[in-house]
Write a structure and sequence with these properties.
The longest helix has 18 residues, at about 135-150. About 75% of the residues lie in helices and about 0% in strands. The chain is mainly alpha-helical. The protein has 2 domains: about 1-80, Serine Threonine Protein Phosphatase 5, Tetratricopeptide repeat, CATH 1.25.40; about 90-170, no CATH class. The chain is globular and about 45 Å long.
């Protein structure tokens, strides 16, 4: 760990890495996260989040085995790796496994609306894969309501994509 590093700068590094991987610069984003992981060793309340983000990058880049291993490391370091693990299940064709991973977290009263909104796109994809159109419609409606509250481009994009998935399945 960098001497005197308290982990407070990680949030900014994480946001920058996420912007990079969402734009397709997976290698750059992964390098940023790996550097941060090295700096954060010993800060267990933060290190799991860093490992999770690296797993997301690996997943998006198509490195499924590496993503699975990294999500496991995130979990070992205190970060429940969802929706990433659930998304990995979907990519591998196991929609039921994805639903099982997400169902506990999505129980009413478990998470606030923003945390739920981060899980809903994967939940919607899994429900559509299982042919559960009504469950998916309810989740799209919830995501749309949260999007209206946040005025977030990311949630707006997720909502638009979810509506498209729903329209294709309908």
């Amino acid at each position: 760990m960098v001497e005197g590093h308290d982990g407070k700068g990680w949030r900014g590094q994480a946001d920058l890495a996420e912007m990079k991987w969402r734009r397709g610069a997976w290698d750059d984003a992964a390098d940023d996260v790996r550097r941060a992981v090295g700096e954060l060793s010993g800060l267990t309340d933060i290190i799991g989040v860093a490992w999770y983000q690296l797993g997301e990058i690996q997943l998006r880049a198509g490195h499924l085995e590496a993503a699975e291993e990294t999500f496991g490391t995130a979990h070992e370091n205190g970060k429940m790796p969802i929706p990433g693990w659930a998304h990995l299940y979907l990519v591998r064709g196991d929609a039921q496994g994805a639903v099982e991973l997400l169902s506990d977290a999505l129980q009413p009263g478990t998470l606030g609306p923003l945390a739920r909104a981060r899980l809903l796109p994967t939940w919607i994809d899994a429900q559509m894969a299982l042919g559960e159109l009504q469950v998916a419609k309810e989740a799209v409606a919830e995501l749309e309501e949260t999007c209206k509250l946040t005025n977030s481009r990311a949630f707006d994009a997720a909502t638009g994509r979810a509506k498209g998935v729903l329209a294709l399945g309908d």
